[in-house]
Design goal:
Number of strands: 0
Protein name: DoxX family membrane protein
Radius of gyration: 19 Å
Organism: Mariniphaga sediminis
Structural class: mainly alpha
Order of helices and strands: HHHHHHHHH
Helix content: 55-70%
Largest sheet: none
Keywords: Membrane, Transmembrane, Transmembrane helix
Distance between the termini: 16 Å
Amino acid sequence: MVKKMGYSGKQIFALTFLRVLIGWHFLYEGLVKIYTPGWSAGAYLEGATGPFSGLFKNLAQQDVVLSIVDLLNAWGLALVGFGLFVGLFSKACKIFGILLLALYYMAYPPFAGLDQNVVAEGSYWIVNKNLIEIGALVVLLVFPSSYITGLDKYLSEVKNMISGRNKK
């Protein structure tokens, strides 16, 4: 299948390595939130500084909405991370990962003149780790490799067998 997609072994390794690293990052962040008693995104949302800060702050002020945001955030990170890590439903995971990261980016965009209430890792201007990870997921989205090195490969084979396309 490597030849079919036109990727060399080194390219497959690099794409798979990148997918697994990002998957681990998402999975770890999700599990930390799930297993930390009392964890909430409330303080993060309350401190938002970006152009949609009003929306984020409003989410934090409604207990029911905040509990839904907490649940979706923690489990979204964990499930996206697991999917990327093992290469399962990876296209959907990449898209949802991009959406999650875009929300984080818009909550605290590294734009000049915005008061940042969250401790940032270094000094940024426009580009931060969220935007870089979005870029990496876009690369993985347009150069898919999980059909070669992930569980998606087996799902694809089963789908082909069911539809009769895998006749020999």
